[in-house]
From TrEMBL:
The chain crosses the membrane at residues 17-38. It comes from Mucilaginibacter polytrichastri. This is Lipopolysaccharide assembly protein A domain-containing protein. Keywords: Membrane, Transmembrane, Transmembrane helix. Residues 54-76 are annotated as: Disordered.
């Protein structure tokens, strides 16, 4: 097996002596776990209890669902 000789690694101002293969395996496992944690999708919070019909003071109107004549002329 290759890379089994003892090597000095300096980790956070501390000298550690261990085989290269152990250090390579350790960092590969840590990088894999970090990749899974960073790459996973986040949970989406949904607002299910909000009643939009009760919000009468809002200036935002719901979409009408139809285009104006000016928009139809622009698209055509």
């Amino acid at each position: 097996m290759q890379n089994t000789d003892q090597v000095k690694f300096t980790i956070l101002f501390t000298d550690v002596f261990m085989p290269k293969v152990v250090m390579l395996t350790l960092f590969s496992v840590v990088a894999f776990i970090l990749g899974i944690l960073v790459g996973r999708p986040r949970k989406v919070k949904r607002i299910a209890d909000y009643d939009y019909d009760k919000d009468e003071g809002s200036d935002i109107r719901p979409p009408a669902g139809t285009l104006s004549d000016e928009d139809r002329d622009y698209i055509s």
